[in-house]
Specification:
The chain has 2 domains: 79 residues; 130 residues, Jelly Rolls (Sandwich). The chain contains 3 helices and 10 strands. Its main location: secreted. Pfam families: C1q. It is found in: Secreted. This is Caprin-2-like.
Length: 294
């Protein structure tokens, strides 16, 4: 029943009560009043349904925006990796050219140092023997020098790029916003070596494959309880549960696991338990951190 229909019934009842039109009995008025009560109850049910639909639409909108930001962050990370790859190839090419030029210069210098033999002057047997001995000694010395150079020159090693992040949440999450599978966004970034963590979505995109350490901490109060999952892509890799009894406590989880390049690592509210506000203030912060171990 719409609001217009409800008002029409009210007008009808008001007209009957205040008019001089005779009624057969009081039963007619009672029936109208009962119908009016039923209509009011129907209207209240419709309002509750509209509120639930509006809440569902808001949740879906937030999830869609978060998915969009995650996709944009992934594209940005891939562009950075492509740019880094191009820069590394340019450096390697320049290094190869420099080494090739140096080899040419060394070969040219060695060639210029060779003794010039006058083929037009006849040599006696003693001179030929001396020249052969001198050439053999020169070749032996040159080979020995080249061997020493090869032994002394160590291959250049590129130092590994560090990967580590540490982020906090700046504000509380009210109870009415805490829903199942809600991804927690840690918006205050303290450390982000390797640029893998994205504060707009709360997702850490793994820049390099390897063994990683992850840790996450949350604070509860006022008889509230929550479960928080460590997710890698769509798989749960860690879970902590926190429940308070008239006090305030912080709970921390730690996980050591292998992650592949491009994996999404994030913290979300478990669907098993989520009651009350999630606190993050001056008395204790919600924290998400991780670093590459090997």
């Amino acid at each position: 029943m719409t609001l217009f229909g409800l008002l029409s019934v009210w007008v009808l009842v008001f007209g009957i009560v205040h008019s001089e039109m005779p009624l057969e009995s009081d039963v007619d008025v009672k029936n109208l009043l009962q119908r009016l009560v039923v209509l009011e109850e129907s209207l209240e049910v419709e309002r509750q349904r509209n509120d639930e639909l509006e809440k569902t639409v808001n949740i879906l909108t937030r999830n869609l925006e978060q998915t969009k930001r995650t996709f944009e962050d992934k594209c940005e990370a891939l562009e950075k990796q492509l740019q880094n790859h191009r820069e590394e190839r340019t450096k390697i090419s320049a290094k190869n050219v420099a080494e090739k030029t140096q080899r040419r210069r060394t070969y040219k210098n060695n060639w210029q140092r060779k003794p010039v033999v006058d083929w037009w002057t006849p040599l006696d047997s003693s001179s030929k023997s001396k020249n052969r001995d001198s050439d053999a000694l020169s070749i032996q010395r040159r080979d020995s020098t080249n061997l020493k150079k090869r032994l002394l020159v160590q291959p250049s090693q590129v130092p590994p790029t560090p990967v580590a992040f540490y982020a906090q949440r700046s504000t509380n999450i009210p109870e009415n916003e805490v829903t199942a599978n809600l991804v927690i966004v840690f918006d205050v970034v303290k450390t982000n070596a390797g640029n893998g963590y994205h504060p707009s979505t709360g997702v850490f995109i793994v820049p390099e494959s390897g063994i990683y350490v992850f840790s996450w901490s949350f604070r509860n109060s006022d008889n509230h309880s929550h479960s928080f999952q460590l997710m890698v892509n769509n798989n749960e890799e860690g879970l902590i549960y926190s429940r308070t009894a008239g006090s305030s406590i912080s709970t921390t989880g730690v996980a050591v696991l292998h992650a592949n390049k491009g994996d999404d690592v994030y913290i979300r509210v478990s669907s098993l338990r989520h009651t009350g506000t999630i606190y993050s203030d001056v008395l204790g912060r919600c924290v998400f951190t991780g670093w590459k171990l090997a």
